[in-house]
Amino acid sequence: MLVSVCTPQADIVFLIDSSGSIEFNRRGDYQLELNFVRDVINGFGAVGDNGIRVGLVLFGTKAASRFYLRQSTSKEVVLNAVSSLTYLDAQTNIAEAFKLAREDQFIERNGDRPNAPNVIIIVTDGRQVGCYLPFPKGNISTSVDVVPAL
Known about the structure:
It is a single chain. The protein is an alpha/beta fold. The protein has a single domain (10-122), classed as 3-Layer(aba) Sandwich (Rossmann fold). It is built from 4 helices and 4 strands. The protein starts with 9 loop residues before the first strand and ends in a 27-residue tail after the last strand.
């Protein structure tokens, strides 16, 4: 189920891969990821309390919330947050990114709205490496759509 950019309200968290493999095969792919995220955000209608809220999780070996849904006061604020993301050059721990989205982003204290759909958009080269736990169990999504971006 893809959520249309016409949806009046949605809480959308981007999981952005900042691992070494992003830049290993082709220099500049990390910037392409950020450009893609900015393009998607620019396609949203209203950003803020009455529209789309955006959260940002950057991941490599570890995942970290870099911007919370509650901070989405305007499109400009969100785009500035994307521009401030720095490249990690680490391993790829996709499972940690999903876990963090569920436990740190999609919670009311950090801006999750109970009546808005929760959406995760993951931007990655798809190569999970290392001995990480499998994807976390729990109600992350009832359906998943994979749309290649790079």
